[in-house]
Design goal:
- The protein has 235 residues and is an alpha+beta fold.
- Helices cover 47% and strands 10% of the residues.
- The protein has 10 helices and 5 strands; from the N terminus they run E-H-H-H-E-H-E-H-E-E-H-H-H-H-H.
- It has a 5-stranded antiparallel β-sheet, sandwiched between helices.
- The longest helix is centred in the first third of the chain and has 22 residues.
- The chain is globular, with a radius of gyration of 20 Å.
């Protein structure tokens, strides 16, 4: 039996289509940056199994009462749904237990939006993005496929940065060294800088190892590093 997931947005259909198109290009690049050619061939069945996405307007015949609202958030969900203008359906969704690439694809997709109302299907209650992301944390993400590959550790005394991102990584490590023993207020960090901080706080990795461990797509990784650097400098 195939599974489907429906997501509802306040964006217009054209705006949503642009976001999805940009995200798909970024995710395709992330796959190439994360895996070797041999690994891409190995994981091709997982990649091919990623659910197809269809952007569509919301039917005038669809109402909030057609769903199972969360009793604790029903009024908030109703108001959000009534302001939605577009939706996404993910068809033939693979089981998350067997496809870590789908887990990361969906996680990063949800982080592309300020808010989303999600219908998991069946008799499950509607969920906002934050709650659904918590559910996804139960499953292994794409970087779990790299668990058996040792990360390259930075030799800080001898390594020579060779690219702007290498310099940026070293700048952040310098700030972390300066703040050693200081309680960094991680709750004030956004999600992407926080994921990078968590990856950096206990070990020193080069930019490639850090990128893989963060689980972010390239654009979010670069932006997150910059934001983390300036956040730490203010402390």
């Amino acid at each position: 039996m195939s599974r489907a997931l429906n997501l509802y947005f306040r964006l217009s259909v054209k705006e949503l289509e642009r976001v999805i198109e940009d995200y798909q290009a970024e995710f395709d690049q992330a796959l190439e940056d994360t895996f070797s050619d041999d690994e891409l061939l190995k994981y091709e069945p997982m990649i091919d199994a990623i659910a197809a996405i269809y952007v569509q307007p919301i039917s005038n015949e669809l109402s909030f009462d057609d769903f199972y609202g969360d009793p604790a958030q029903e009024e908030k969900q109703r108001l959000f749904f009534e302001s939605c203008r577009s939706s996404i359906v993910l068809e033939n969704l693979p089981y998350f237990e067997s496809n870590p690439i789908q887990v990361t694809y969906l996680t990063d997709l949800l982080w592309s939006f300020e808010e989303v109302l999600i219908d998991p299907g069946g008799v499950s209650n509607l969920m906002f993005r934050k709650d659904y992301l918590e559910e996804l944390k139960r499953y292994k993400p794409m970087d779990s496929l790299l668990a058996d590959k040792p990360e390259k550790v930075i030799e800080t005394k001898t390594s020579v940065p060779v690219s702007p991102i290498d310099f940026l990584v070293l700048d952040v490590y310098k700030e972390l060294d300066r703040l050693r023993g200081f309680a960094v207020p991680v709750d004030d960090l956004g999600e992407k800088p926080r994921r990078i901080y968590e990856a950096m706080k206990n070990e020193k990795l080069d930019s490639t190892g850090l990128f893989k461990k963060s689980g972010l797509i390239p654009k979010d990784f670069d932006d997150g590093l910059e934001r983390l650097k300036f956040f730490l400098r203010k402390l």
